[in-house]
Model the fold of this input.
Amino acid sequence: MIDKKEMKKQYKQTLPFMGIYQIKNLINGKIFIGNSKNLHGKSNSYKFQLNSGLHINRDLQEDYIKYGEQNFTFEILDTLEPKDDPAYKYDDDLKTLEDLWIEKLHPSDEKGYNKIKK
Done:
């Protein structure tokens, strides 16, 4: 017999896929790099924000309106493996990984939507 309490407990302890993603404009090749502790949730969130005209990145939002949803993709670039410690904080790891991808792909100015701090 399946123990529903145990199944619920395991589900709550299972971490979602976390890592680095890019939103890519298929028309001009521009990309936006970001990180998330829940990549599936971030995909849904970015679609909602852009379709509602609420995305914080104005350049990305303007191109999304101009070119349409069908000309943008959400791609996972890298993932983090969960640690054995359930209290582990992933923020620093995600930021470091994101910085590495930003350094590799240079998603600013004419190549992308990220605003790089100088």
